[in-house]
C-alpha cells in the first residue's frame, strides 16, 4: 500500500507575502415602503369609477417592481401616486354610491 506524504511547507502560505486586503460591504437598512397593492386591488374590483382603481393598481405594481430592483426613490414616487389615485377612487366611489 502506497502512502502519500504531503509537505506542509508547500501547502502553507508563503512567509513574505503582502498583507491581506479587507472587503467592506455596506448593507442598506430594510425600508418598509408600502406599495398600496391591496387597496388598489380592492378599488379595482369594487370602486373602479373612471378606471381610477385600475390605474392605481398599475402604479402599485410599478412601485413593487421598483422596490424589488432597489430603486427606493422611484418606488416611493409610484406609491404616492397610487395612494393619491386610491383616495380619489374611494371618495368618488363612495359619493357616487350615496348619490
Automatic annotation (TrEMBL):
Compartment annotation: Membrane
Regions crossing the membrane: 37-59, 80-98
Principal location: membrane
Pfam families linked: CD225 (PF04505)
Keywords (A to Z) from UniProt: Membrane, Transmembrane, Transmembrane helix
Keyword rRNA-binding recorded: no
GO biological process annotation, one example: response to type II interferon
One GO CC annotation: plasma membrane
InterPro entries in the record: CD225/Dispanin_fam, IFITM_antiviral_protein
Record bears the keyword NADP: no
Family according to the record: Belongs to the CD225/Dispanin family.
Descriptive protein name: IFM3 protein
Amino acid at each position: 500500500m502506497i502512502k502519500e506524504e504531503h509537505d506542509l511547507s508547500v501547502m502553507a502560505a508563503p512567509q513574505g507575502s503582502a498583507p491581506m486586503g479587507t472587503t467592506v460591504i455596506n448593507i442598506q437598512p430594510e425600508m418598509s415602503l408600502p406599495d398600496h397593492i391591496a387597496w388598489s386591488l380592492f378599488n379595482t374590483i369594487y370602486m373602479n369609477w373612471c378606471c381610477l382603481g385600475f390605474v392605481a393598481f398599475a402604479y402599485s405594481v410599478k412601485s413593487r417592481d421598483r422596490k424589488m430592483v432597489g430603486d427606493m426613490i422611484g418606488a416611493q414616487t409610484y406609491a404616492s401616486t397610487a395612494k393619491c389615485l386610491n383616495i380619489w377612487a374611494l371618495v368618488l366611489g363612495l359619493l357616487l354610491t350615496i348619490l
